[in-house]
Design goal:
alpha+beta; six-stranded antiparallel β-sheet; 4 helices; disordered N terminus
């Protein structure tokens, strides 16, 4: 049974039991019942603060493949991390990528999103040893309840053209190899059109506080989707956070392992690391106090059966502000009678 309904029922029985004890105070009883009901509503859970995370706009340094398998191309996944400080409902995301020049936006036919814990959660540990490291990588497998796919109706998306001509300094699309052949320096510069894809999750993705990786895949007819890098470290107007990790990549030949795009594939000295251009929007879920049910039937022994349940200290002041005027009004009417 719903806890709020149980509490309300207890309040009804409680006020009924008070009436024979205080015949002259029916007005007070009614006011107390209304006051207590208000206190119960004050104690119910609520949605809390808006949530927004962004790595900012593309910096032109690199684009990495992130798309499902197609003719002559392996499934390839690029993932970047974010942190939730409390339970959060993520309703929408944006990603920014490069597609070949002249590609109609209608050729972007599907988007799929997966979310991963940070290794070693959801993973074989110790790992296979096929890559230089797995510390701070995405997990082996995704969080099933957080997967959304446009082809299955669990997300919708819209695409907008941001720039008709944009160049990047390097790319990673095919050179994703197990150790010791993982360092390929990338596959050189590329140019094309910059598109931003706005994704709405149906239903929203609800995750508890933790550190996660966000992985989108975009299907483009007769073309590639290169997920564009964003500044690392994140700076305003992005959303900096402590513990920001670099982006990782894998293809279906490398699964379940991942490679660091900067450290493992591009290499060099000093090593350059990357974030990917994305944003997340939603709201945090408040953990407010909830009313506590009183067992039926209530008892008037020692005042039992008239508990209103858990009312937070912040709401007790409101309760007294309502009770004091009620008591004064009852006393005044009693003296006149």
């Amino acid at each position: 049974m719903n806890r709020l309904r149980m509490t309300t029922r207890s309040l009804t029985v409680c006020t009924s039991a008070m009436q024979p004890l205080v015949p002259a105070g029916r007005l007070l009883v009614s006011l107390i019942a209304a006051t207590v009901t208000a206190a119960v509503w004050l104690a119910t859970p609520a949605w809390a603060d808006p949530f927004f995370f962004s790595t900012d706009t593309p910096d032109g340094l690199i684009g990495t493949l992130s798309q499902p398998a197609s003719t002559g191309s392996l499934e390839t996944e690029t993932a970047d991390d974010f942190i939730l400080a409390e339970t959060t409902s993520i309703a929408q995301a944006t990603i920014t990528g490069l597609i070949p020049s002249g590609t109609p936006l209608a050729d972007i036919s599907n988007v799929e999103v997966e979310v991963y814990h940070v290794f070693p959660k959801d993973s074989d540990d110790p790992p296979s040893g096929n890559v230089p490291a797995r510390a701070n990588s995405p997990a082996d497998v995704e969080i099933d309840t957080a997967t959304r796919d446009g082809s299955l109706g669990t997300l919708t998306f819209s695409t907008s053209l941001l720039d008709e001509s944009f160049s990047i300094l390097n790319t990673v699309a095919d050179g994703i190899n197990p150790a010791p052949d993982n360092v390929t320096l990338g596959e050189g510069p590329a140019s094309g059109e910059v598109v931003q894809i706005t994704i709405t999750f149906t239903p929203p993705i609800v995750l508890p506080a933790d550190h996660y990786f966000f992985r989108p895949e975009v299907q483009v007819a007769d073309g590639d989707f290169l997920f564009l890098s964003a500044p690392k470290p994140i700076a305003a107007p992005g959303t900096p956070f402590t513990g920001d990790l670099q982006a990782w990549i894998r293809n279906s030949d490398l699964k379940p392992d991942w490679l660091r795009i900067g450290t493992d594939i591009i290499g060099g000295s000093p090593v350059q690391t990357f974030n990917m251009s994305l944003s997340l929007t939603g709201e945090t879920v408040a953990q407010a106090a909830t009313p506590t049910a009183t067992p039926d039937p209530p008892s008037n022994n020692d005042g039992g059966g008239c508990s209103i349940g858990a009312v937070s200290s912040a709401n007790r002041g409101t309760l007294w502000l309502l009770l004091v005027p009620a008591a004064v009004l009852w006393w005044t009417r009693r003296r006149r009678g």
